[in-house]
Here is the input.
Amino acid sequence: MRPILAGIETEYGLLVEGRGAEDQVDDAMALVRGYPGECHVGWDYRYESPRADLRGFRLARLAQDPEDAKFDAGRTYGEAHEVRADRVLPNGARLYNDHGHPEYSTPECRSIFELANHDCAGQKAILRAAKHYSEQEGLAVMTYKNNTDYHGASYGTHESYLVPRELGFERLFRDVLPMMVARQILVGAGKVGSENSRNVDYQLSQRADFLTEAANAETLYRRPIFNTRDEPHANTQDWIRLHVICGDANMISEATARKAGLIKLAIALAQIQEAPLWRLKDPVRSFQDVSRDQTFQFRIELEQRSWTTAQDVLESYFSAAERLLDLDDELKWVVDSSRSLITDLHHDFSQFSRHVDWAAKKAMLTQFIEEEGSDWSDPHLRAFDLEYHNVDPEEGLHSALEEMEEVVPNPSTAELLACLEGCNETTRGFARGLAISRFNKQLLGVCWRTLTFDVDGSPVEMDLPPDGDYPSHLREAVDVETFISMLRGVQ
Amino acid sequence: MTDGDRLTRPITREPGKKSGDESGPSAPDIRKPEGGNELLRRMKKIDPDQAKKYRQRSGE
Here is the structure.
């Protein structure tokens, strides 16, 4: 089977000494603008369509969180594109300010492990920018790869998967939604407490409390499990970008790879119309029930008074994939390693917690509770939860667990810094990155879909087919005309 | 929660049968991580009110 192109965009939490949420847009904008590495400045917004819905209509406007809007009272910002402060890096990634959050969007990847590496490299890019901003302002600046502030504000880690338009909303929704609900038992990041009316000590997912509908096109408010935004960043006739917004930011890089691999399994089965058929009675309720179930039964209510478990849902995808798909090595790893983890969850939690963020965090907090004679109402626990996600390797608690070999290691710093310099896979992210590192002076516009060059005073726009195989000898182009000529040959 | 039957397999494209297994998996024995010097050193430095003070803009 042909690998599915994917990307991950992560909005980082930002805490600047002496500053509040009302200052966050200004801080994030300044932080991104100060990114000290090589980059292209700007973004071509012509192809953005966040209000288009896969179900065939367009929203008049996107809903805003009324509580959050209060932070903007009496404040004025510049033009939207100036506030976003877009930077495009030599690996084809995008760094910008999204609603007050520094956001790193990976280049498009075919391999789930490359994707996980680039997602992890984003932490280094954010850290670079944060350290620069800290030195510039003389203030402590902390950045967190998480999805909640514990006060009711959430920010996303979104996955994007390129799928043929012919799959359509109905099939994708039916075939991928059960996977979205079930996979959190293996890839949730974990959270102390809750941020809606149902109290709980600890839960698997950082996002579950913020999901209110099964499907819609919103992302800022009334968030859905299945996002129907129709913005393919490619030819609309041919492609859908499945925009997954219900997942968590993972600190364990292996979990990032598994998170993407599980969705790819569901998409691949949808493509051959063989995905397991589960009719969930109330998907939002099930997502939250699974997230909150510390008995680890993970029961999911089905239509017609039946029920199942998240483990059985996952196994149904695994067995169908083994039976019906020509799995590549990566997806075989997803199936095999996930099965082992489900066994370990119930029989060897110390092994399970080496690979799964929510479990690593829970083991760490449980140790504290036992040693201090404390309980889950102790405010230290939320502070430790937050600091698990601190991206500074000298400060973060995930990094401490990694140093102590309590969790599987992430890629080395050298590998991650190399990721920021370029893209190994010959995707359009590779071509975009090369354009920036080689021909930035001639670049008039950059976005996911196109590159626009200035050639002898005239704009030349090049479409970047998302499924194209971009030749590695693009590196050898001696001038922009040759580069453009090579791009024209990409099929 | 309903008291209906447990399905361990998805609905087949043709009508499938229900297994009716109510036992479910058992809760795990959570063991704490070994060691802890570096972790404890960092934990001691953390302001217990850090999360209370952490307010963010709502993002996507």
In short: Chain B has two helices and no strands. Chain B touches chain A through 48 residues (CB under 8 Å). Residues 5 and 20 of chain B are 5 Å apart (CA to CA). Residues 14-21 of chain B have pLDDT under 50 and may be disordered.
